[in-house]
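Exam revision sheet. Question 4 asks you to relate a sequence to its structure. Input first:
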Amino acid sequence: MSTPATSTPVLAGVGVRVAAFAIDVAGITLGTTVIAVGLIFAGLAIPGTIDGLGPGSALIHAGALSAGIAPLVALVLYAVLTGHRGASVGQRILNLQVVSLDSHRPVGVGGGMLRTAALFAPVLLWLVLRLAAVLLAPWTGGILGPNGWGGGVIAALAWVIPLWWILLAAQLATGRRALHDRAAGTMVLALRARRL
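Answer key, structure tokens:
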């Protein structure tokens, strides 16, 4: 008679962690794209003005939401799932768990926020700059927009994002705890079933 399987935690490898991260980034990108398209269509459908800003302000507000607010909400959700439940959607699919280095328990929402902020640092800066460019466009005369200096900064920062993630993956390849894990005092475990 066989005994039931139990989970034995082992430190997660680089490949499975990168795969879980790719699932999460794809989900965040897909979700925020759907929201952005919906908001743009909603903005086009709203006649008149919003807050007396003039024609087209509905579209500007929809663009602001799609440029920064929706992705920021997605990252907060990612942080809450990682901190409170111990796993994002991608990590749960691949049977991984983020735990405190000391207690081997989920780190809580604060720890999840800190870990997410370090993991997505250039993304967060990019989103804040995009959001500021869209919201301030009516008052800055386009200086922060795509044709102004702000557009150049935002475009340059977009190149930093994949380089940041390559750096973190390289850290994982050498020590399996990258900057975001060190910042929050976490480690990622792979739960594998074994027979007793």
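Marking note for examiners. The chain has seven helices and three strands.
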